[in-house]
Amino acid sequence: MALYPVIMAGGSGTRFWPLSRQARPKQFLPLASRQPLITDTAARLKGLSTVKNTFIVCGPLHAKAAAKLVKGLPKGNLLVEPVARNTAPAIALAALHVAARDPEGVMVVLPSDHHVADVPGFKRTLAEAARIAEGGHIVTLGIQPNRPETGYGYIQVGASLEGGGRAVKAFKEKPDVETARGYVSSGEYLWNGGIFVFRADVILAAFAQHMPEMKKGLEALRKTVGKRTYAAVLKKVFPKLPSISIDYGVMEKASNIAVLPGDFGWSDVGSFAAIPEVRPADANGNVISGDLAVVVDCTGCVVLADKRPLSVVGLKDVVVVDSGDAVLVVPREKSQDVRKVVEALKARKLQKYL
User: Fold this and answer.
1) What is the pLDDT along the chain (354 residues), one digit of tens a residue?
2) Would you state the torsion angle of the CA atoms of residues 198, 199, 201, 207, taken in this order, to the nearest 10 degrees?
3) From the CB of residue 304, how many other CB atoms can be counted at a distance below 10 Å?
4) Strand-pair category, 189-199 with 115-116
5) Helices first, then strands: H and E counts in the chain
6) Could you tell me which residues come within 8 angstroms of residue 339 by beta carbon, excluding any fewer than 6 positions away?
7) What CA–CA distance (Å, rounded) separates 211 from 8?
8) SUPFAM superfamilies this protein is in (predicted)?
9) Where are the chain's structural domains?
């Protein structure tokens, strides 16, 4: 059984301004280690698959950086979307390319901007998911929750399936705090981590059944994969595909879904507040980066310095970031609101800071 990782690298990452910019979104930042998140994502697949079987899906603005950061990626494995159309068309495009090589090849669809602490455990879970997928199931990985998180969708799990994994009772939207507490205490719910495993032919059949509006466009693309006409047909067809997530387009409709629980130190690194989840802190709970960062009498702070001294004194649970040309100061609990800064900069036409 050959595994074909598909790394989804189309996100904009506005919650990490001023480090993230339009040309350098979150997945290209070294937030969890010394390497960019996308590089870590590809590296943790070593032993499960090869870079020659790995695909990256991204937009034109990020194609050059993605190719540079994943060493050895074949040119034909960089799939560039002419426009962003959400995850369903992006995954369908990758499935066409995998199917052209190996119709029953097992795809492992991974976000490019997540962190995994227990890499061996992650690999074991993916290998089990691939085994289940080989039998015809569409597998989604459910992350064992350790808190009542309101920033994630949830999966309600059902009975064990004969081929492995659990049945899916329901997919749930991001809940409020009380609902999230109920989910976690019930033991019936897992976080939806956006990691999927399925055979190329199985997911293409699911798109044909549950998203017939894509069928004509995908068939036109299928005929041109690997041919000179591909780029022109992609440019014409792809923008007309519906902009919808695979969760809405397929996962909530298909009957052959299996969820496989996983507990491998997963984090979506969703904002600066999540940095302490993926980086070591000092004795006072501060995460400090940069040789010129000076932190005095602070607790629970995230301080990221650039090439000039950055001094932070007497603060608690605050994020301070210097990117060289811009500075951000925000309470950790308000880290999700950083995107509002980006909106304000757009409104003031300060494009050079975006």
Assistant:
1) 899 999 999 877 789 999 999 989 999 999 999 999 999 999 999 999 999 999 999 999 999 999 999 999 999 999 999 999 999 999 999 999 999 999 999 999 999 999 999 999 999 999 999 999 999 999 999 999 999 999 899 999 999 999 899 999 999 999 999 999 999 999 999 999 999 999 999 999 999 999 999 999 999 999 999 999 999 999 999 999 999 999 999 999 999 999 999 999 999 999 999 999 999 999 999 999 999 999 999 999 999 999 999 999 999 999 999 999 999 999 999 999 999 999 999 999 999 999
2) 10
3) 21
4) unpaired
5) 11, 17
6) 14, 15, 17
7) 20
8) Guanosine diphospho-D-mannose pyrophosphorylase/mannose-6-phosphate isomerase linker domain, Nucleotide-diphospho-sugar transferases
9) 3-267, 272-353
Query: What 3-state DSSP class applies to 13?
Result: coil
**Contact indicator for 300, 292 with CB cutoff of 8 Å:** no
- CA-CA distance, 40 to 85, in Å (whole number)? 25
Q: Which amino acid is at 219?
A: E
- Tokens (6 digits) for 182: 């109920």
* Residue 265 and residue 271 in contact, taking contact as beta carbons nearer than 8 Å: no
Query: Residue 181 burial by CB count (10 A; 0-12/13-18/19+): exposed, middle or buried?
Result: middle
Tokens matching residue 97: 């390319």
Query: Of the candidates 222, 93, 197, 215, which has an alpha carbon nearest to the alpha carbon of residue 142?
Result: 197
User: H/E element holding 157?
Assistant: strand 154-160
**Cα angle: 302, vertex 304, 309; to 5 degrees:** 125
Residue 333 CA to residue 239 CA, distance in Å, equals 38
Confirm whether pTM is higher than 0.85.
yes
Residue 200 Cα distances to 59, 142, 286, 349, angstroms: 22, 21, 45, 44
Q: Which residues pair with 189 in a beta bridge?
A: 156
CATH superfamily of the domain spanning 3-267: Spore Coat Polysaccharide Biosynthesis Protein SpsA; Chain A (3.90.550.10)
CA–CA separation, 175 vs 172, rounded Å?
8
